[in-house]
Design brief:
about 270 residues; Arginase, Chain A; 6 strands; Agmatinase
């Protein structure tokens, strides 16, 4: 199971993504968008935990934080942390009705309990599906790859109707066709976009907990995110940046750049709403 082999330190990702975001500029070179001119944007800080070592309480704290954001009519763009954070984020944003999901990742993250806990980075989308937060028939998982000790995650995604696009299919189709297929799957309804940095090949993003060779290039990753322009997003995240495993800082820089791409999508959506 992927969770058993993960390297730690994703908790340091948000701080380093913030550091690297100082290199981001405002006007996009392709779309000529300036998200800071299109919407009011602010870093509202970190989620405060009431009991750091109680994973269920941590999940509740994150969910409550995002519920308040959602009720205030804001569109959240989040930096993880490992992928376990996306489940409580969805609890806060999608409690009224299930939403579509665009997941860009090396792993399906649909495994069951691990070491007696359901709160781990290998199972957020199984939890979200079982809680009725995401519609599995409107879920697409892009870039999946890497050997596993059990087929449990792949089998769960398949059995529930999620569209799994293994990296070989992504490479064969090309980014434009992958975007078209993902748009077909999620349709026109509300959708959440979650980007795990391990979807990118470790040649470009070595600083992550569960690196898998044979992934997206950094350019493909940016083009993929940009392809979802106009999709009705309720929020997005970039997760699993683990700075200690990349002394160059390039993984966090890519994470910050991806967040800028997502910010452009969300700001344009807010400006045209």
């Amino acid at each position: 199971m992927a969770a058993s082999l993960a390297r730690l330190c994703a908790r340091l990702g948000p701080r380093e993504i913030r550091n690297q975001s100082s290199l981001m500029r405002s006007i996009h070179h392709v779309t000529r968008q300036d998200p800071f001119a299109q919407a009011r944007i602010a870093d509202i800080g970190d989620v405060r935990f009431s009991s750091l070592y109680d994973l269920e309480r941590v999940s509740d704290d994150i969910a409550a934080h995002y519920r308040a954001i959602h009720q205030a009519g804001l569109l959240p763009l989040s930096a993880g942390g490992d992928h376990s954070v996306t489940y409580p984020i969805l609890r806060g944003l999608a409690a009224e009705a299930p939403v579509g999901l665009i997941q860009i990742d090396a792993h399906t993250d649909t495994w069951d309990e691990f070491q007696g806990s359901k709160f781990h980075h290998g199972g957020p989308f199984r939890l979200a599906c079982e809680a009725g937060l995401i519609d599995p028939t409107r879920t697409v998982q892009i870039g999946i790859r890497g050997a596993q000790n059990t087929a449990q995650g792949w089998d769960y995604s398949d059995a529930t109707g999620m569209r799994v696009m293994f990296m070989e299919e992504v490479e064969a189709l090309g980014i434009e066709s992958v975007v078209a297929e993902a748009r077909r799957v999620v349709g026109d309804g509300p959708v959440y976009l979650s980007f795990d940095i391990d979807s990118v090949d470790p040649a470009f993003a070595p600083g992550t907990g569960t690196p898998e060779v044979g992934g997206l290039t950094s350019l493909q990753a940016l083009q993929l995110v940009r392809g979802f322009r106009g999709q009705p997003l309720i929020g997005a995240d970039v997760v699993e940046v683990a700075p200690p495993f990349d002394p160059t800082g390039n993984t966090a820089l890519l994470g910050a750049t991806l967040m800028y791409e997502l910010l452009c999508l969300l700001a344009e959506q807010r400006a045209t709403a």
